[in-house]
Amino acid sequence: RVDLNGNYGNYPLYFGSRGGSSYFFNGSIDDIRIYNRALSAAEIQAIYNATK
After folding, report:
1. What pLDDT shows up at residue 30?
2. Residues 1-48: tens digit of each pLDDT
3. What is the pLDDT, as a whole number, of residue 49?
4. Is 23 exposed, middle or buried (0-12, 13-18, 19+ CB in 10 A)?
5. What does the alpha-carbon distance between residue 2 and residue 15 come to, in Å, rounded to a whole number?
6. Is this structure's pTM higher than 0.70?
7. Domain boundaries along the sequence of the chain
8. Dihedral pair phi/psi, residue 24, rounded to 5°
9. Angle, CA of 10, 14 and 15, to the nearest 5°
10. What DSSP string describes 1-52?
């Protein structure tokens, strides 16, 4: 979970690395979604079932 409050400042948001450093995620990232609210367990389960 990454919390973003809409005022993240002047810092870039990275997926797959730690702050743009040389520590990269060793794998695949298939689907990134950002929601403006917390999802319920049922919503998460429905998304999982629809995309597997």
Report:
1. 81
2. 555 555 566 767 777 777 656 777 788 888 888 888 999 999 999 999
3. 94
4. exposed
5. 10
6. no
7. 1-52
8. -100, 150
9. 155
10. -----S--TTPPP-SSBSTTSS-B--S--------SSPPPHHHHHHHHHHH-
What residues contact residue 39 under an 8 Å CB cut-off, 6+ apart? Answer: 47
Q: What is the pLDDT of residue 26?
A: 83
Going from the C-alpha of 46 to that of each of 9, 23, 40, 52, the distances in angstroms are: 33, 32, 10, 10
Residues making up the chain, counted from first to last? 52
Q: Which residue has the tokens 């990134």?
A: 32
